[in-house]
Amino acid sequence: MVYKHAKPFIRAFSSIAKQQFGQNVHIGELHKGESQITTKDVSIIVGVTNELVGQIIFGMEQDCSKAIVKAMMGGIEVSELDDMGRSALQEYFNWVCGNAAANFIDYDPPYTIDITPPIISIGISKIYPSCPEVYSVPLQLDSGISVELTMSVKERF
């Protein structure tokens, strides 16, 4: 996988953070990771299929996930990730990945991708993705909300 596969997700995350929260996203350095992924306190996992296949994982600490949910719910204080909070997180990252899928059309060569509904993993665990190459990039909003985008994606053909 090359950096171009990360760009549509970074672009979508940045665009939606600006629209939803009015904040800029500071993009860290892309780095190659291990074939096993150690998740964060809260991880949102989205499958990718069609011309690219693999998984996208958005990992964050519990406080960051609550801050995203609070913003999604109009500023309502969030003390725990209940059903509504988890649903808001899933919706937010589904929105990001859906926009990223549309962004892939603008790249050379363009890719057609489909995404699976997001699932949430609470607690630190190890994930062994289907693609051996894993890349991560930290994304931080002006407010300090920090999300690590981890990708394990390859071309199908």
TrEMBL record:
Keyword terms, alphabetized: Chemotaxis
The keyword Transmembrane helix is annotated on this UniProt entry: no
Keyword Transmembrane assigned: no
Residue ranges constituting the Chemotaxis phosphatase CheX-like domain according to the UniProt record: 42-120
Domain of life from the UniProt record: Bacteria
GO BP terms: chemotaxis
Listed InterPro entries: CheC-like_sf (IPR028976), CheX-like (IPR038756), CheX-like_dom (IPR028051)
Protein's recorded name: Chemotaxis phosphatase CheX-like domain-containing protein
